[in-house]
Automatic annotation (TrEMBL), chain A:
PROSITE patterns: ABC_TM1
Family note: Belongs to the binding-protein-dependent transport system permease family.
Domain ABC transmembrane type-1 positions: 70-285
Name recorded for this polypeptide: Sugar ABC transporter permease
Segments passing through the bilayer: 21-41, 74-96, 108-128, 158-183, 204-229, 264-285
Bilayer topology: Multi-pass membrane protein
Organism from which the protein derives: Jiella mangrovi
KW Transmembrane helix (keyword) present: yes
Coiled coil, from the record: none
UniProt keywords, alphabetically: Cell membrane, Membrane, Transmembrane, Transmembrane helix, Transport
CDD domains: TM_PBP2
TrEMBL record, chain B:
SMART domains named among the record's database cross-references: AAA
Gene that this polypeptide is encoded by: ugpC
Name the record gives this protein: Sn-glycerol-3-phosphate ABC transporter ATP-binding protein UgpC
Domain ABC transporter: 4-234
Entry-linked InterPro entries: AAA+_ATPase, ABC_transporter-like_ATP-bd, ABC_transporter-like_CS, ABC_transpr_MalK-like, ABC_transpr_MalK/UgpC-like, Mo/tungstate-bd_C_term_dom, NA-bd_OB-fold, OB_MalK-like
Gene3D superfamilies to which the protein is assigned, alphabetical: 2.40.50.100, Nucleic acid-binding proteins, P-loop containing nucleotide triphosphate hydrolases
Pfam families reported for this sequence: ABC_tran, OB_MalK
Cell inner membrane is among the record's keywords: yes
Amino acid sequence: MKSSVLDAPLRKNLPFVLPGLIIYVAFVLGPIIAAVVLSFTKWDGLGRPELAGFGNYLQLFGDEFFLKSLRNNAVLIVFYCLLPLLIGVALAAIVSRVRKSEQLALRTLLFMPYIMPSAVLGIIWQWLYNPAFGPINQILRGVGLGALAMPWLGDFDLVLPAVGLVATWYYFGFCMVIFLTGLQRIDPSIFEAARIDGAKPWYTFGRITLPLLLPEIRIVLLLTIIASIKSFDLIFTMTRGGPANATLVPNIYMYELGFQLNRYGYAASVAIVGAILIFAVNYAVHRFVRPAGTGAR
Amino acid sequence: MGQLQLAGVTKSFGKAEVIQPTDLEITEGEFVVFVGPSGCGKSTLLRMIAGLEELTSGDIVIDGRVVNDVAPVERGVAMVFQTYALYPHMSVFENIAFPLRVAKLPRKEIESRVRRAAAILKLENRLDHKPAELSGGQRQRVAIGRAIVREPQVFLFDEPLSNLDAALRTEMRVELSRLHNSLGNTMIYVTHDQVEAMTMATKIVVLRDGHIEQVGTPLELFHRPVNRFVAGFIGNPTMNFLKASCLGETGDGVQLRLETGSVVTMPVEGAARQGDDLTLGIRPDDLVIAEGAARFEMIPEVVERLGNQSVIHGADMAGEPICAVVGGAEPITQGQKFELGFHPDKAHLFRPDGTAFARRNTALA
Ligand SMILES: Nc1ncnc2c1ncn2[C@@H]1O[C@H](COP(=O)(O)OP(=O)(O)O)[C@@H](O)[C@H]1O
Ligand SMILES: [Mg+2]
């Protein structure tokens, strides 16, 4: 058998790899390194960057805006991650019992938000939430619940949950579809065996369904946590971090610092902390959410 | 305890009537095997008994109680599935203990029951393992253990051995029979394999297309099949079917002419008219070389030598396929025609609609 072309010496294969590699270095690796370097400098985007050592990072952890953005992000994780996960599992358990044809319709319907660009959704929801003529408040007033018609995106306490719920709505269908595939992987007679042995639906769900869905739970956790730490477009289009920084998150803060205040070095350090957070959380999920029965250590 | 009646039970999925009206009586301690070709409704019938499928009509009565609307767990049945249906994330111990934990038994009781079941099934030193670490046979034993600990009135098995290799299947067959002897419970066992049915059952129920063809002991089905389907399904290798035209009745039975020209008188009861197209059935083991009242010649095409016997596949001179089992020492070679014969009282006779004539030989079981 002829050996694969991939076994050829490096210099022969380099021409094939180079175009991709160049693009990767220019647009991914380069900027990452640049950002890391930048985060150790002060730079206004015009002059020469001045070396600042760990100054940016030290300043960051005394910066009340940054700390607030972290707190907001922690709250948003509930909406990006926890709620879609819970709703997704529950819906998957219900939808999987529905007949095939209807299941397809439900699946498509609930997955729909996920296929739209989130920036577009942000604009749509901003309109839905509009205090004066937004459909939500109009409906509330229409059914006599005018007292509940709030300035959703204008209220300091409501705005974070209001934005968060859009993220929940965006992600739960996606979570559900992943859990549905997970359920299809499981031998249906396992559930029948549990039923014959007298296990009630809740017991079966807690003792069998959930543990067997751990691989999917792990994927969903990883993806949604990353999404929440990276959250920018939904919030940017709906509130721009306002009112009064009530929805400020690290990425919005980074944007403001860099592109509005021209503090590129400081903005870069925010980005790097965000990246480190993502790595840390990923590691934690990998470490602590382990599918049972497979090489448990 | 462990009695079961099906009265006019039917099941339809949409328009398809998968189980036609079925009556069946199962008494305590029987080992009943539902056997039939794939898709005949065996699993559906079993799942209705288990309570996993609702009845379309009719009644299922367990120990005198109509259980149509009773939850599976309250029917006193335990089931073993073809795919084992073990909980992959739980240890063997937890798998076996599962029904007891559901029933909220005290820990001591759970512990002792699981250990007892594990001892019966030789799983004592596997209790801490996960199902993935077990062999197929061990997994099946865990599934059986999970059924045993519940101490059910009735055990239900749905093709529990089909995922095992041949050697293990034979071994598990013996173990299941042994288990039935020692527990004495009623067991209902579904299989498409007539060998499993013949070897384990005290009572066989032959199903086809959602209805019962015949119910009886293994030997009853073997010696007195009520129709061609049962005759062809039970017994290995399959019975030979030869075309026969009726020459009329004599005092000794029905006289026939086979395609090969031989004339036979079959000792059977029942009316037949001259010219009727009948079918004669003869098992491969009942064909003997150059012996018997009815003779014909056969051309062997394939000779399978098993040592103690040889299985010969070929055709008679009229081109009908024939299979014969002869002694292993017989000098039969492929393509060399030889004479076969049989005793008419070993053969079966079927009407054009497939039903069997009653055989006169009362010595048969
Ligand atoms: N849930 C179902 N929906 C529709 N048809 C079914 C269902 N379950 C079984 N059937 C049909 O019922 C018939 C009998 O099935 P089954 O009892 O599984 O046969 P088997 O004898 O092989 O166990 C088959 O034709 C099968 O297609
Ligand atoms: Mg089946």
